[in-house]
Amino acid sequence: MKLKRLAETARPVIAFVLDGQPASALAGDTLLTAILANSDHVRRSEFDGGNRAGFCWMGACQDCWVTVEGAGRQRACTTYIAADMRIVRS
Amino acid sequence: MTDVAIVGAGPAGTRAAEVLVRAGLRPVVIDEAPDSGGRIYQRPPRGFTRTDKTLYGFEAAKARALHAAFDALRPHIEFRPETLVWNIRQNILFTSHAGDMGEVPFGHALLCTGATDRIVPLPGWTLPGVTSLGGSQIALKAQGCAIGHRVAFVGTGPLLWLVAYQYARAGATVAAVVDTTAFTTKLRAMPGLLRGGATFAKGFYYVGWLRAHGVPIIEGATPLAILGSEAVDGLRIRTSGSEQQIACDAVALGWGLKPETQLADLAGVPFAFNAAQRAFLPQQDASGATANPSIFLAGDGARIAGADVAELAGARGAWAIVAARGLAVDHGEVTRLDAALARHGAFRSALDAAFPFPARLAATMPDETILCRCESVTAGELRATARAGTTLPAAEVNRAKALSRIGMGRCQGRLCSPPAAEVLAAALACPLESVGRLRGQPPVKPIPIMPRSPGSAP
Amino acid sequence: MTTQADVLIVGGGGAGCSAALHLALRKVRCVLLERGLVGGQASGVNYGGVRQQGRHPAELPIARRAREIWGRLPALIGTNCEFEATGHLKLARNATEEADLVAYMEVAKAHDLPLRMIGRNAIHEAYSWLGPTIVAGSLAPDDGVANPRLLAPALARAARAAGAVIRENSAVAGLAHDGAQFTVQAAGETFRAPALLNVAGYWGGEVAAAFGEPVPVSPLSPNMLVTEPLPYVIEPNLGVVGGNVYLRQIRRGNVIFGGGRGESDPGRPAARPLPHVSLTGMNLALELVPHLAGAQVIRSWTGIDGEMPDHIPVIGPSRTTPGLLHAFGFSGHGFQLAPAIGAILSEILLDGRTDVPLEPFRIDRFGPQDPLHG
């Protein structure tokens, strides 16, 4: 899955780190948007090993939790990206 | 102690706060989001530039009015954004904000907890590229993104057509709109739908626009599977006996909404089976009062009726609280609200009939379908609990949960409990209501283990 | 309608279902009556510890016997109920607690319970994830964990397959003994038998009181929580001296922990965890295993058990009514014992003897009770 940005593309670019690799997002992106603008998944199911990329985008399904270094576990769809955040996917 | 706490700052919570402030109270308003508006009128992050008209379409004026109302209330309420209410016991709300645990004691609480999409899992629905219908709308509205480059919309209900329209208008490619409800079913509900007036007309407008712009529309279809191994590469459906594949790289799924009833459950509000919505719902009277004299309910969090009704019900619930507190009630206003709510009720019944939950689709999902995506429990594993294996058969959903782990994961059955109940009832060949409902368990959503000193909660 | 049986069993927890199984295996006609669903209370919603270490010495012979059955559950009932001998590691957080562990080594030795002390350096070397406040531990390698949700339904299914009648949603509405037979009303029917097993958990107190021997039993609701799945590193089942926290990780990754008590209303019946107790439990868990910081708790729960003033159950014959046997009030640690309780009760009934000393568990050990408060 790669998101397609359709609007609001003139926002400032924000640099962050995804699994140790440099990545970029736009100010106002959630972690979910930021990750899926750079990559095809957000986490891996602990039980079936399948890639997951969230589902509900509204903090209900709990299928987009990631680790942010220094901030612990964060739900990607309800957390906003900040400069130099270091996101680690499971 | 806080006199009144409102959980949820969407349409119901905003209008409720307005009434309470008018009555001279200063409510605490708690919401998980950083801003008011709820999901339907979710405000984009700062720095976004699209107009209200672009974001909310026909509802722009309502969204603007609601946001303005909340902004005007801000000095008169205590707003706690980005705060989860994870439990409720007696007259205390237990909150979590950025890892900090807190408590909000209250005299009366109005729960305006909103709704989530009602989903029927399909094989492949856990693939990246598949979102809920509401999720696909939030991606566009709050993040300026489409969930993919060629998006198929699958489900039923007014939101299906609205989101597909919004995607197409925003420049996304809509691969297809697949409505599981046959046109004839909607036709039968037509007389009742006409009561909806403007709402009904808008629905027709979206369908017409999509047709006029060449978007493939398939009604009365059965979605069979979302295809792909690492990502979505198609959708397989069946229409009148023949199967076809739709090429797409993203799929949005939604069959109407289901209320977020967890807090009402933890507050001890009794539930009753609602045949039209095929769900157990918290019991309330027309004012939003419940069997728990401190707890009132309003909006889609109590039963699905849409944003317009939520505004009315929020105000009505707030007046009920004003009355319960012995303050002066504007009886003319209450009468007006009651009449308006009654009018909407008739339209709602017609909508339920026009866009029924596809119980059969859920009940007959293939065994290999991942039903509980948190715990990766398949429909086949759930069905096995209905038979005697190495344990007694599960005659109801809580035992099925105990035996199969269905609904035991991070979301606590938020997504899978309606289809799981359908699967179990079908496997047991018994009425849906006899399999019961999953008991609510705190926390309502995950809460973090963080270093803190005992009793440090404020 | 009246059903005649050899034995009536009141209560579908682990003990009752095990009794039904052991009786049915010996061709005894038994009927088990359960108010809700089997394993619905203490037996089904407990922590899942299969622990001998730390038990009251009087319980150890039963625990040893139970442990032997746990090892052959697959042959007995067709499933191991996710039992795994992960070892039970009991931790000391100071010198006084360490002395407690040392003192228990003698008790274990007297009952042939394998147990070994691990000192401060060795314990942090062996379990690098333990928090710094841990000064010592004792490891019982044969102890372990199981899935409590599976045990009672699996025992009940096996009992049913062996010929027992298992009646769920059958609350007992009336109990009587006419000198020769017990008569029990449940779910609109009448059940009669010359023997009755009272394995009704907390509600065992009401059954005992109905036969004129009230006991001081109170409801106990252990407060339990579970985290989201985390990488699997915590192999042994963990406890502490004093028992204010206990914690284990299942192979799927979730960390299950408990401590303190929830609240209950045995009359409905209903029980729920208490928010403050949950938050305190999270702190205590973090002290044991600091890497839990930031992990998400996804669910909490409790159930209702019966607790006796001396924290050991009532097991054995009634002093008032021939044919009545009690086994209830397991005080929060009956899950491991359950498979053996059924075996022991069946032996008392059918053989008139059992090889486990039951004297410490006799029902009249509390002295006369106010019958109104039984």
Return the CATH topology of the largest domain in chain B: FAD/NAD(P)-binding domain
Instruction: Give unreliable regions of chain A as ranges.
Output: none
Oligomer: heterotrimer
Number of strands of chain B: 23
The number of domains of chain A: 1
For the secondary structure, the number of strands of chain A is 8
Number of helices of chain B: 15
Question: Strand fraction band of chain B?
Answer: 15-25%
The percentage of residues in β strands of chain A lies in 25-35%
Helix content of chain A: under 10%
Major pleated sheet of chain A:
5 strands, mixed
Q: Could you say what the CATH architecture of the largest domain in chain B is?
A: 3-Layer(bba) Sandwich
Largest interface: A-B, 45 and 57 residues
Mean pLDDT of chain A: 96
User: So, the CATH homologous superfamily of the largest domain in chain B?
Assistant: FAD/NAD(P)-binding domain
Q: CATH topology of chain A, anyone?
A: Ubiquitin-like (UB roll)
Question: How would you describe what is shown here?
Answer:
The complex is a heterotrimer of chains A (90), B (458) and C (374). Chain A has 90 residues and is mainly beta. Chain A is built from one helix and eight strands; from the N terminus they run βββαβββββ. Chain A has a single domain, classed as Ubiquitin-like (UB roll). Chain B has three domains: 2-116 and 258-352, FAD/NAD(P)-binding domain (3-Layer(bba) Sandwich); 119-255, FAD/NAD(P)-binding domain, CATH 3.50.50.60; 359-435, Arc Repressor Mutant, subunit A. The longest helix of chain B has 24 residues, at 331-354. Chain C has two domains: 2-48 and 149-217 and 310-373, FAD/NAD(P)-binding domain (3-Layer(bba) Sandwich), CATH 3.50.50.60; 88-141 and 222-302, D-Amino Acid Oxidase, subunit A, domain 2 (D-Amino Acid Oxidase, Chain A, domain 2). Chain C has helices at residues 14-25, 42-45, 60-71, 73-77, 95-110, 120-126, 148-161, 204-210, 275-288, 338-351, and strands at 2-4, 7-10, 30-33, 49-50, 88-92, 116-118, 136-140, 144-145, 165-167, 172-177, 182-186, 189-193, 195-198, 218-220, 222-229, 237-240, 246-249, 254-261, 263-265, 270-272, 296-301, 305-307, 314-317, 324-328. In chain C, strands 6-7-5-16-17-18-15-21 form an eight-stranded mixed beta sheet, with helices on both faces. A six-stranded mixed beta sheet of chain C has the order 9-3-2-13-24-23, sandwiched between helices. A four-stranded mixed beta sheet of chain C has the order 1-12-11-10, with no helix packed on it. In chain C, strand 11 (182-186) and strand 12 (189-193) form a beta hairpin. The longest helix of chain C is centred in the N-terminal third of the chain and has 16 residues, at 95-110. Chain C is globular, with a radius of gyration of 20 Å.
